[in-house]
Amino acid sequence: MPPPSxxxxxELPPPADVLAFGPHPDDVExxxxxxxxxxxxxxxRCVIVDLTRGEAGSRGTPASRAAETAAASVKLGLVARxxxxxxxxxxxxxAAMTAPVTAAIRRWRPRLVVGPCPxxxxxxHVAAAHLVKRAYYAATIGKAQxxxxxxxxxxxxxxxxxxxxxxxSFVVDVTDVWAEKLEVVSCYASQLxxxxxxxxxxxxxxxxxxxxxxxxxxxxxxxxxxxxxxxxFTERMLALGDPLKALTARDGMVR
Length: 255
What we know:
- The chain has helices at residues 27-41, 62-76, 95-108, 123-138, 178-186, 189-192, 209-223, 243-248; strands at 18-22, 46-52, 80-86, 112-116, 156-160, 170-173, 229-233.
- It has eight helices and seven strands; from the N terminus they run βαβαβαβαββαααβα.
- By secondary structure, the protein is an alpha/beta fold.
- Strand 4, helix 4 (123-138) and strand 5 form a beta-alpha-beta unit.
- The chain has a seven-stranded mixed sheet, with helices on both faces.
- The radius of gyration is 19 Å and the shape is globular.
- It has one domain (18-248): LmbE-like (Rossmann fold).
């Protein structure tokens, strides 16, 4: 008898250049929306995978969050967006939760993986950061659980900042896309308290939130001599082909 045929693999979408993970819908937009827009404007294929549906959020519903996420995804110009349906407020660094994150990396085969920073006040953000880090490595191991998909080795993993901001590895200039980013963020009207629905007061619904939010990214822009900047952390060394060019690009910085 002939040997059994190997199981057929599912048809995969075209690879993404940038694959960003969010613990909840809106995390990528609020923390790294400018970066995603800047990458899309440079012609890169960008995808977001949300780990949860944000069903435990103080405001909004899973249905309203899904509608807001769809609108934000259009404004971001994503080629795709997925939700893994993991439990909100209950993310844990386990093999069972790592496997679908690994499968997402193998399915989209990105060059760059973007995840939350492991330093954060929100337990879901911390767990998500470690899940992404584990999956980033597991995706390269052929026998690791990951939806039965072939192994894939991305080029790099970087982390965006949430509640806390340790010393960044680099800051991305998002001045040219700042107005677009605010349009993307405004899609999450339920979270900002702009949908007219009654609900508890949160940090995002305070009258001062948007002003503080803008000041935060103006600060990081000032550190690199631009209007607005988004900080990122990475554990790998960054190579500079022309250090002088990279350093002189900061001439407008307030010293």
